[in-house]
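Researcher: Quick one. three chains, 1121 residues in total.
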Amino acid sequence: MTAPDPTTPAVFTDAAALTDVGLDGHADGWELVVGLEVHVELATATKLFCGCANEFGQEPNTNVCPVCLGLPGALPVLNELVVEYALRVGEAFHFHVPAQSVFARKNYFYPDMPKNFQTSQYDEPICLDGHLHVDGVRIAITRAHMEEDTGKTTHVGGGGRIHDADFSLVDYNRAGVPLLEIVSEPDIRSSEQAKAYASELRATLEAIGVSDVKMEEGSMRVDANVSVRRRDTAEFGTRTETKNVNSIRSLGRAIEYERARQIEVLEAGGRVVQETRHWNENDGQTHSMRSKEEAYDYRYFPEPDLVPVAPTPEMRAAVRAAMPELPAARRDRLVGAWAITERDAAALLGTPGLADFAEAAVSALGARGGSARDIVNWVNGEIAGHLNETGSSPAALPLTPGGLAELVGLVASGTISRNQAKDVLGEALLHGARPEQIVADRGLAQVSDESALGLVIDGILVANADAVAEYRAGDDKARKKKRGFFMGEAMKALAGQGNPQVLNRLLDQKLEGNG
Amino acid sequence: MSGSPTASERDTDLTSRSAAGLAAAVRSGEVSAREVVDAHLARIEALDGSVHAFLHVTADVARARADALDAQRRSDGPESLPPLAGVPVAVKDVLCTRGVPTTCGSRILEGWRPPYDATVVSRLEASGAIALGKANMDEFAMGSSTENSAFGPTRNPWDLGRVPGGSSGGSAAAVAAGFAPLALGTDTGGSIRQPAALCGVVGVKPTYGRVSRYGVVAFASSLDQVGPFARTVEDAALLLEAVWGHDPADSTSIPTPCEPILPGLQRGVAGLRVGVVRELTEVDGIQPEVSAALEQAVKLLEQAGATVDTVSVPSAVYGLPAYYLIAPAEASSNLARFDGIRYGLRIVPGDPGSANAAAMNGATRHAGFGAEVKRRIMLGTYALSAGYYDAYYGQAQRVRTLIIRDFDRAYKHFDVLLSPTTPTTAFALGDKVEDPLAMYLSDVCTIPTNLAGAAAMSIPAGLDGSGLPIGVQVLAPGLGEAVMFRVARALELGFGFGAMAARGGPA
Amino acid sequence: MSELTREQVRHVAKLARLDLSDDELDRFTGQLAGILDHAARVSALDTEGVPPTAHPFPMVNVLRPDVPRPSLDRAEVLACAPDAQDGRFRVPRILEDEA
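Model:
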């Protein structure tokens, strides 16, 4: 256990201080410095060094073999797809890929690590010196390297908290799952920028197909190294590493919390302790996990059971040739082709799978009528809202892209109104029926036939002759009111299914005409 | 066979035959595989109480395997039998055997039955050879006398008061005592060749990467290599050819095809250039009879038409110190997995209610490892720790490069090299237990080959004044097994030891 | 090379997760110092510009296809364990600063 540092408040409680010290990073004389360490689980069929299945959610200790259990005598053999994925990442983020990279053993004891060393890369990683742009700012990426994941421990008793537990249970299904660790330089200066970096990273990793990048399930894990310094100083402040951030939004909150906490510590004359902190989503605070004051001695040395990886020109050319369109290029293309805003395009790419869904829906529009913009409005509106509420993913929706195209077509042809379309979409999102089917089943189709609607209006005008007279004698305000009344009566008579455009036109003709 | 020998005469005959001879006899139907196995098991039963070559004898499995091979011969004919059908073999307890206890001579693995077979064990079975059991060894292959076994030492069949060498002392003793004509061992710094020399048998350390390490409990991953023991050079080649070759489960396994040994074995050494390595011959404390045996080896080779000269491999003298940095460093990491969680021993100190995982790890490793293993874990942890890596491990790996370069230079002028296998013949039990460094020095001639990743073998070269075997070492460049065996075969003919070794032992 | 102290040996034992008795600490301090003294001879060699050898036979790109293979039977795996529960390996409580 770590002795509490007397200069650090045990818990930072003054949430109001968040606003007192200012959020924009300029007003208060403090500068925020952030670097992000991102671990992504790679979407392979098998683990990094053995043929065990790389699957989430299996029965404990069923995806294990001598290699990933670290049984005496077992030896690792590198998964070729992991190397290919690492090279794709190299391309996507403009990394330098050295002629040779090697695996190393990182030695420390922990029950979730079967060999009590982690096979990782140390001084010769596969990718060096990359970068990406967020909102026009270049963020340098120090390195990306391949390594194996650990098993999972469950703490039993003591409310599931590690140090109060009676004992722990270990499942090694995740042990040996391939990870890519992507480490940025401390180039990030605001929580917004950190979120944008993480979003762009996630969208890019998704686009190149190397991971399903689900932060909630832990297939993308973002740790934030946060420090603050006075604006006029050149050297960095002492940093903390915050773990357990489960969404992009939480990343922003955790960084803001850490920033305010550190400033409060420093302004009170204390010092920031270099340590690992744990973000708690419920109380919105970070909590000290362990002190890094005593540096760990990992005794790295080259893994003697593996040989170096030396990407050949052929391997690199094959990866380059197969590179898909990256988010930045895709954003530009969608803005141009669909006449949507940058903001709309960014929103589409900000949620995994959403842009794919929209593109599939647009290509399903065909001759139905309706525009790509209509599709994007629904996708970024109702559908994104639904995903947010339910935590589902676009691919898992009961509504297919073809279904959305149908819906847009129904509105464009005037068959249903936009309000009706909202109801239909709500039902399609819940139960998966096709919009055309829902419209048919509920008899929702609009009445647009002019002679039928004309008869209904005639009937209303005759039955409300007084109102007609008042309309004709009234001023603009009175006329508007009466007109609304006639429209309402007509809709009532038509059970809401009258085509409002046609009704409006007919009403104008009949009130202004000889009638 | 004429007349009708008694059962025990018959057993003695079978247990003194070569593997090649036994395989031929089983194939021809002269004896059944079951008779061969029973004869060897009877000898183990009678004599292993005093030798202690085996930690675990798998008599029932071996008999069942023999019966199955005999049945196969009856039903499918002798041609259907694999090459080593019916030949007994002892397997060092460092090799994983599915469902059969595998302890590495350590308390920490007592009772562990691996859920898988080492690649060499699968290949052994495919060759028709029949494993009789698991051979004793220094704990985790760390030692040169087999006194570091947690289950008691093995004794040298030539003199039960002396050590058989190590770490593969059980394998060497089993072959010398006639418990099996063949055995598998591992050699990290001399652990096959040194006990082979001390027990008067043939022992081969193949090129690193030539034999799969999958399922071999690791000591020092970049040095470990599996190899055969036998009483004849031909038998050693038979066993090596049965288990070697590329294995996709071992990333360090060499993919190039193996040049067969047996076809050229009898070609002789005329025209070969043999270099006697000065640094491995002029070592401190070398026994005069060992030097004399080496001189005789030189004469024999010259008589057989080879040219012999001395050669210097200057950096070889740094082999021992480099080894005692590299091997413990890798071992400290390889042995970290023995923590009382997934297999093997667990000791929970104090009150179980207040126990924690770290304390359990520490107590388990304290109780489960013997003194030599602890020493090397400590040494290796220290050599890798912050601030020392470059001076120790890093420097040792650079020295390794120099040793490889020096050997490369020597092999520009010579086809094979020659040296003693060990500076002395077998020493008495207990002699060096309290002096680790003295024990380490018995591997001074063998270690450079491991660092270079090359091949070398020890062959018997007569007896010293006390009647103890002397070994001579033939060294070859990486993948040079075929020429190395040719030279070994020529020396075997010259020394005439094929008959001698079979005569030996406490029969 | 520096002198090896008892405290250093104790620290190394902690890194190696190895409990040592006082007697072992004393004995190992002396023995390790002797062995390290011998091993330190490697520093006598001039290795300026000499690359380290990690593998005697240089090979690169030893890779396997991303094709699943059968895993072990869980009962067989857990049968080896000193303690298991609910299909998992059971361990005493883990202290936070263990890693």
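The longest helix of chain B spans residues 390-413.
Researcher: Thanks, that's what I needed.
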